[in-house]
Amino acid sequence: MNTKKTLYMVVPCYNEEEVLHETAKRLKEKYASLIERELISAESRVVFVNDGSKDKTWDIIQELHAANPETFSGINLARNSGHQNAVLAGLMTVKDICSMAITMDADLQDDINAIDAMVEKYHEGNQVVYGVRSARDTDTFFKKFTAEGFYKFMKVMGADVVYNHADFRLMSARVLQELANYKEVNLFLRGMVPLIGFQSCNVYYERAERFAGESKYPLKKMLAFAINGITSFSTKPLKLITTMGFIMSVVSILAMLWTIVVKIAGASELGWSSTVCSIWFIGGLQLLALGIIGEYVGKIYAEVKQRPRFIVAEFINNTGKNTEDKQ
Questions:
Q1: How far apart are alpha carbons 239 and 245 in whole angstroms?
Q2: Is the per-residue pLDDT at 174 higher than 70?
Q3: pLDDT digits over 213-243, tens only?
């Protein structure tokens, strides 16, 4: 086996029956091209990770493996673990049998043709290659505004993330071994991978429309994902609470002095509106502070329990061997 050229594609899938056959078809064609050009070895595989799908996704993965065991493999998680955990499950399963791994979603929005450039950059010595969107022309105004705002806000919060990069990336086996040392339950791979270090570069591509099916990231999940990313990689929100508390203390002292001056001047009749607004404002800040602290306490609670991030119920590979694992 040429371990220096063995590529494993990790493709997380959740209810992707509408697009999976087309995704498999395009990836098979791409693999044939890469093998012909000798950029990857014939032992390379595409690994679909079924993240507790409720449709026929796992049945399709099994069919693809049975028809083309030399190309397709499958991982079936015991339950829905979430996108980030599904990606990690795939990476941790293949880290000892590949020399490089690429993660991409099954919806064909990531440009499969960018894989060539990623592999070439790897052979040039890069251990991590990030797939970065060159533009957001296909996004709605709201999506573009919120997404770009998220990356900028993450930078302000001190998190090291690659601008306009999602989870389309190549990592070497060495990087995967180091990633295995990160044991946190609250996963945010876009922030974790840059922390590992090693030589890296970007490959730019244009993101397409979803081929079929519905987005698995509605606004509610996107907001939750953003909050998880911020609180997992930055303590600045906690520092902001301290800053707000200091500012409110100064404002309170000034207000007290103003009240004394007004009392001495004999004009102590104060308005109802200012009193009510002050109470609501301070109360709102207190609830916000408690909410931010609660987010961090909740993360500590999840981490100290050390529950498995995912459980692999079945791994079908061309060796004919099924395995079980949990992390």
A1: 10
A2: yes
A3: 555 555 666 666 666 666 666 667 777 777 7
Q: What is the 3-state secondary structure (H, E, C) of 1-67?
A: CCHHHCEEEEEEECCCCCCHHHHHHHHHHHHHHHHHCCCCCCCCEEEEEECCCCCCHHHHHHHHHHH
Cα separation, 75 vs 62, whole angstroms: 10
- Number of other CB atoms surrounding residue 262 within 10 Å: 13
Give me the sign of the Cα torsion angle 57, 111, 96, 3: positive
Measured in degrees and rounded to the nearest 5, phi and psi for residue 238 equal: -65, -40
pLDDT in tens, 114-132: 999 999 999 999 999 998 8
205 phi, psi to nearest 5 deg: -150, 165
Q: Over the Cα atoms of the chain, what is R_g?
A: 25
Neighbours of 281 (CB within 10 A): 12
Extended beta strands in the chain, E state: 7-13, 45-50, 72-77, 100-103, 128-133, 165-172, 200-205, 311-316, 325-326
Name residue 80's beta-bridge partners: none
Return the number of other C-beta atoms located less than 10 Å from residue 66's C-beta. 10
The CA distance from 126 to 107, in Å, is 27
Residue type, 181: N
Burial, 53: exposed, middle or buried (Cβ in 10 Å; 0-12, 13-18, 19+)? buried
- Please state, in angstroms and as integers, the Cα–Cα distance from residue 157 to each residue in 34, 206, 273, following that order: 40, 28, 35
**CB-CB contact of 290 with 237 (8 Å):** no
Phi and psi dihedrals of 296, rounded to 5?
-70, -40
CB contact set of 111 (below 8 Å; sequence gap of 6+): 131, 205, 206, 207, 208
Per-residue model confidence as pLDDT tens digits over 62-71: 999 998 898 9
Backbone angles phi, psi at 173, to 5 degrees: -60, -35
Q: Indicate the SS3 state at residue 253.
A: helix
